[in-house]
Amino acid sequence: MDVVVIEAARNGNLDVVQWVYSHTTVNSTEEAMASAAGGGHFPVVKWLHENLPHEDFKNAVMDEAARCGDLSLLKWLHTNRPDEGWSTFGIDNAARGGHLHILRWLRDHEVLNEDSDYSAYECNGAGVYGKPF
After folding, report:
1. What mean pLDDT comes out for the span 29-48?
2. Higher pLDDT, 15 or 94
3. pLDDT tens, residue by residue, 72-87
4. Number of structural domains the chain divides into
5. Count of CB atoms within 10 A of residue 44's CB?
């Protein structure tokens, strides 16, 4: 049932996610939450967070949330899951999507700075370095 819940989360189908978790056994919520975050499905992310045991999602959820460009989701995750961080994929995802507002927020929260070599290629590709942001 893991695949069913992951796909339901990816598509924002909260009612399906809730039904699967209440009627079957699902081994992990990490990929479901990351899939929901990547699609910008805030209600699914919030329900998974509030109703299931907290797993250590490492960076996957935050990285995928940066992909969708939903700053309110990123702020909520940052506040409610403070032990989970970012990887270069989150910054790259935001840059690839052209989400300058996300890159600015990451910069303001000391995740991204001009001395960071881990994602300079993506940020240059997005045209954010060399321009005020």
Report:
1. 93
2. 15
3. 999 999 898 877 777 7
4. 1
5. 26
**Burial class of residue 116 in the structure, from the number of CB atoms within 10 Å of its CB (0-12 exposed, 13-18 middle, 19+ buried):** middle
User: Does residue 16 lie within any of the structural domains?
Assistant: yes
* CB distance 124 to 116 below 8 Å: no
Going by pLDDT thresholds of 50, 70 and 90, the confidence category of residue 5 is very high
As to burial, measured by CB atoms within 10 angstroms (0-12 exposed, 13-18 middle, 19+ buried), residue 131 is exposed
- Give a yes or no: residue 69 inside a domain: no
Domain of 42? Answer: 1-60
Q: Is residue 100 part of a domain?
A: no
Classify residue 31: in a domain, yes or no.
Answer: yes
| Dihedrals phi, psi of 68, to nearest 5 degrees | -80, -20
